[in-house]
Amino acid sequence: MHRTDLTRIDDFTWEVPESFREGMRVPVRIIANEELIDDILAGEACEQAIQTAMLPGLVGHLVVMPDVYSGQGAPVGIVAVSKWPVGAIAPGAIGHDINTGVRLLGSNIRVDQVEDAFDDLADRLQERIPCGVDAEGSIQLAKSEVDHVAQSGAQWALRKDMAQQDDLVRAEEGGRLNEAEPSKVSDVAQSLGAQQLGTLGGGEHFIEILAVEEVFNRAAALTMGLKEGTLVAQIHCGSRGYGRQVCADYIERFQEVGHDYDITPPNPNLACVPLESSEAEDYMGAMRAAANYAYANRQVLAHRVREVFDDVLDGMGDRLKTVYDVAHNLGQIEMHQVEGKHMRCYVHRKGAARAFGPGTPGISLPYRALGQPVLVPGSMGETSWVMLATRNAMQKSFGSACHGAGRTMSRHEANHQADEVALDESLEEKGIRVRSSSSGESSASTGGVQLKENIDAVVETVAGADLASKVARLKPLAVVHG
DNA sequence: ATGTCC
To answer: Could you tell me the pTM of the whole model?
Structure first.
């Protein structure tokens, strides 16, 4: 695909018109600046976005975020809005990693007072937090308890003394989605859930210690508890095997029943059913259960981080306060203004954060007047950003913003051990402590493997497109990953 | 993303 195929809407918005391909239901709108657009057009994600725009019952436009990259079925970095009740729901447009997201903890701990402790912090985090695809948790749950976690989300952790009330107040949806139906989750998923709570997983999931490097919006930063020169912790992870299995189970089921509804999906991984079908209802219940599992997981990990801070920094764990907790892969029923009409919709966000503008109901109370916080982690070891959703986001992107830096080389492509090690080494060279379950196994790397750092371009684009505004930039000090 | 894909 080339620029000549696009209509330029404004400096940061490029449209693939509905007429581009037979079967597209809505245009695709790519949010990108001059620096990012050509890479996006060159990649596989663009074709995937066009296919995703063929899902039945979509309205408005398919939003492509500047940090988009290729995924299964739909790319990672899209928002697809389905009209209620005539539209369809597609698990592949939410993703296998249901409610992968970010928890950010701020603190009043000054970086310069604890510089000597970074190595110990990294070591202890690695010891305390099981990482990697096959990680099993320190918490073993009975099957009935898995259902309680899936029902209660982060509130489960509060009952188990692994959360503070304020953690829930400053979390999207209070860390719990209503109407979760653990009974609609398969036994296989449930057994995985029994073993994996409090684990980080693999891929791009990580825990980082960072410093608040620069504040751009003092008032907002004050409300968020972010101050220049202080230490923060960021947790990027999701629902592990539990959510992955839910997605896989329902894609399979939707593939089987799709033709009963006269639906031919654009691609088998985009199998879908009508929103008001019993299959859709089952999936929504199971997906919310997985989302709650992820909220609980990030809460347990936040608790582990506090424990490590208690140990290493002499009881400083309590000084870590939740800034916000946000999902990057979720589907939700929302009201939106589409082509001048206020309508009930089902919003698929895959690799996109909900970003409701100031005053919108549904934003956690401490932030309702400001707008929803948008947490933008870089790829592990990269600069991260905290932003704030703007009013404009409501119509331009159906209340959504980017989820983090796109990857020019996915960990899937970088699947060779040597590349993984080389990536870690390039971070170490920058003075960042890296602890990885796969590190140190090989130094056969040739070096020179690097993730292109495009997060600044992503953030400039999101700010330029007026989806969110900058609050603070965070600089990584230590990262633990699978 | 993942009891990891041929």
So the answer is: 0.96
